[in-house]
Design goal:
The protein has 155 residues and is α+β, with helices and mostly antiparallel strands. It has helices at residues 24-29, 76-81, 94-112, 124-137, 142-154; strands spanning 2-5, 10-13, 17-22, 34-39, 43-49, 57-63, 86-89. It is built from five helices and seven strands; from the N terminus they run βββαβββαβααα. Strands 1-2-3-4 form a four-stranded antiparallel sheet. A three-stranded antiparallel sheet has the order 5-6-7.
Length: 155
């Protein structure tokens, strides 16, 4: 489970769902308080603008069929504040949001990857290598790694 807190909301990713939670006055003044959940199958893209020393960044999740518009030059972040699918963050939280982005994009790619027959699937060693990479990137916890490793070795 990855949880990151931004300037105008919190994002939680459990491997299947991205949840954006907003509380307090800032939420009420912009897009409204509450919670929005996306299953990874619903996310068609992840828009990313990194935070710098003097500007905030944001992460935005697009859903298929969503009504999106292009921001004017220089106003991407200010438009993201009012977008219910975006969370704005400062440079202090950039690393945490990068981990979130990597994990969500990896889950989307895995979800959309073609399924192959069991005989054509990668070897156990290949799967363990992939799991190790996900753990080292921080996309999964050590406990999740151990659970998936055990599943592979038993299966």
């Amino acid at each position: 489970m990855i949880e990151v807190k931004g300037h105008n909301g919190q994002v939680t990713f459990d491997g299947q769902y991205v949840t954006i939670t907003r509380k307090g006055f800032l939420a009420r003044a912009t897009v409204g308080k509450g919670e929005k959940r996306f299953h990874i199958s619903q996310i068609s893209s992840v828009q990313w603008k990194p935070a710098g020393p003097f500007v905030n960044g944001f992460i935005a999740f697009s859903a298929a069929g969503g009504n999106e518009r292009r921001s004017r030059f220089g106003s991407q972040t200010s438009n993201a504040v009012n977008d219910e699918n975006s969370v704005v963050f400062t440079s202090k939280h950039k690393a945490d949001f990068e981990k979130l982005r990597a994990a969500v994009e990896a889950a989307i790619a895995a979800h959309h990857a073609p399924t192959a027959p069991a005989a054509a699937a990668g070897s156990v060693a290949d799967e363990l290598t992939k799991l190790t990479a996900l753990r080292d990137q921080g996309a999964i916890t050590d406990a999740e790694f151990q659970q998936q490793k055990q599943r592979l070795l038993e299966g």
